[in-house]
Amino acid sequence: MTDLAIDDRPVLAGGGDRQLPAPGKRKFQGRRIILMIFLILLALSFLTPALWMLNASLRPEEHVMDFPPGFALSHPQWGNYATVLRNMPVYFLNSVKLAVLNVVGGLIVSSLAGYAFARLTWKGRDALFGIVLVTAIVPNIIYLLPQYILFQKIGWIDTLFPLWVPRVLTPVFGTFLMRQAFKSLPAGLEEAAQVDGASTFRTFLTIMVPQTKPALAAVAMFTFLDSWNDLFGPLIFLTSPEKQTLPIGLAQFQNEFYTQVGPLMAGATVTVIPVFVVFLLAQRYFIQGVTGSGFKG
So where does this one cross the membrane (predicted)? Predict the structure, then answer.
């Protein structure tokens, strides 16, 4: 007598022979759903303040703090933006000027220093790099008084020099990121360039730098944000209204007695737009630079 094999697989109600998901697969799908819900809630926690800021910037001052908040998109009021655009163009141009100087100068110095620490061999290299990293944990407030005295003696107070020269000459984070990026590149690139007769600087400029675009984008983004959001530096070193930057301009909408919430939110919205645009343009390179070669050992 022939033994009949019994198929104990679950049968679907529709009569098909498709198998139900394995327990392990169902467990994985459950974890994925939980992760997606968590990410959605996390995204909402970041988007809600931004949406409230945009909504408040389009509402009359007397209704900005209403609860529950009304939605201004149906009847937007542009008076807050008119107030901001009347007072902020000079501050905006000063912030753009400082951001360009900091980003361009920071990229040049960071890439040169990172290459020297990663690919060149010289006495005391690792010790000096350790000292550079140690300076990153020293609070900037400690440097404030010596810097102010120095800048006062050389006539830099109420100029833009204190707001970009120190950053350009001491890009600790940028140097670290570029060093890690250069260390991740194969040695064969330099060897091939040397065989072709390229000098060290030409090898650096034409061979090595193009290979580190993601790290360069990350350095540029972090440097831009640091310069764009700087409130403390302009507050200490600048005195002339025509030389102030956007953070100082935003601070003028509030004092110890009253805060102009509508214009303040409109100014904050205008300030965020360039950051958003820069991140969108450099998003692919920025993410690669942070998650890829930038943090390899």
Answer: 33-54, 98-118, 127-149, 161-178, 257-282
